[in-house]
Amino acid sequence: MHIENGRVVRRTLGLWTLTALVAGNMIGSGIFLLPSSLAAFGTIGIVSWIITAIGTVMLALVFARLSRLLPRTGGPYVFCHETYGEFIGFQVAYNYWIALWVGNAAIAVTFVGYLAAFFPQIMNSNGLAFGLTVGTVWLITLINIIGIKRAGQVQVLTTILKLIPLILIAIFGLFYVKADNLTQFNVSGKPLFSALTAAATLTMWSFIGFESATVPADDVIDPQKNIPRATIIGTLIAAVVYIFTTTCVMGVVPIAELAKSTSPFAAAAMQMFGSWAKWLVAGAGAIACFGTLNGWVLMQGQIPLAAAKDNLFPPVFAKLTKTGTPAFGLIFSSILITLLLVMQYGANMVTLFTRIILLATLASLIPYIFTSVAEILLYYQRPELFSGKRLRSMLVLASLAFIYAFWAIWGSGEQTITYGLMLFLSGIPFYILLKGRQSTRSGALHNNS
């Protein structure tokens, strides 16, 4: 337990709950729908999974090391605020927070896509699909408002349930793979390197969340040990599951059919085991997306909470309920999710998913690229934290992580980079307005005194 605002707050998140948060936040909408998006490139998508897994593990190692040095709620925001200062700290919090709620829109869309396997009328009614998507967002928001412990329990349960069918497909799917389906290596019409880069940017979406254990640090039991362990274990679990299951799905379902599917794992299971398996996997996909959305909704309240504590977000984001949850941040973020879904009303589900995840991925990569070299800055600023540690290993790891993040940003395409730059710059007026109000308030207090 720890003291916050004069009250005792009990730490409730242990190693396995944290690992479930990391793995559960990654293994969700990405793996359950991404094979359809990757089918536009061909089986080069499998290679992109491997490259992305290696790059993400390097980033995860950076985050794990920083979490030992700065075990506070906020994850990448805390790391960047401590090393770069207020302005970059604000930009990281601002972009990461936007990535959270924009990404949650994509996860909710995928959840409804898997429900369509049970209720085909969903695909024929934009109004019904929209209503179910928005309703799911608000149901999970309510679960998180009730309390972080309850949200953690939901996360453990849904992570276990989602892993079972994925592991089964990874094991038994190897016996159903057709070699001809894997020969269409690059069907995108792009040069090899360009296709690989674009596919890797899409697969990066599925690894976003490896930093999840670092975000609710104030609620973690023994954070200096459990956060790094959960980060690495969760990332490795996701990497193994992604590579093996995607290979099986692409080997079982023809590329042309896969590109049109809103539930690719259900399509693969149906071809492997018969029509009954479609329902099992579709149900698991829905559970997976529900659990992933639960974890990410938890996160969308924690980032503005951490920034508000440092006076970089409006103070209302720092207010907690009796159960210790940042209710305003959760509710406000979900309002923004709803507005985003309204703006995209009527779009095809696979198109909508791909469009949203590219923007969410880029918004996440901005915090990642700043964090990748934050440990080096911290080394020079606060050398007392690094007793006996060598700079050389930090330089190598940070350089590789930075290069990977830079490459992933470049691969997102000109249009997405333009939107991402506009997103980054859009934070400047908010920062100036926030600091101006703080200055005015401080001046008023000074005059009154």
How does this structure look, described?
This protein is 74% helix and 1% strand. The chain has 17 helices and 2 strands. The N terminus is likely disordered. The protein has one domain: Amino acid/polyamine transporter I (Up-down Bundle). With 449 residues, the chain is mostly helical. The two termini are 37 Å apart. A two-stranded antiparallel ribbon has the order 1-2. Strand 1 and strand 2 form a beta hairpin.
Portion of residues in beta strands equals: under 5%
Give the strand tally. Answer: 2
Unreliable runs, pLDDT <50, ≥5 residues? 1-9
Number of domains as seen in the coordinates: 1
**Can you summarize the main beta sheet?**
2 strands, antiparallel
Write down the overall mean pLDDT.
Answer: 81
What is the CA–CA distance across the termini?
37 Å
Number of helices: 17
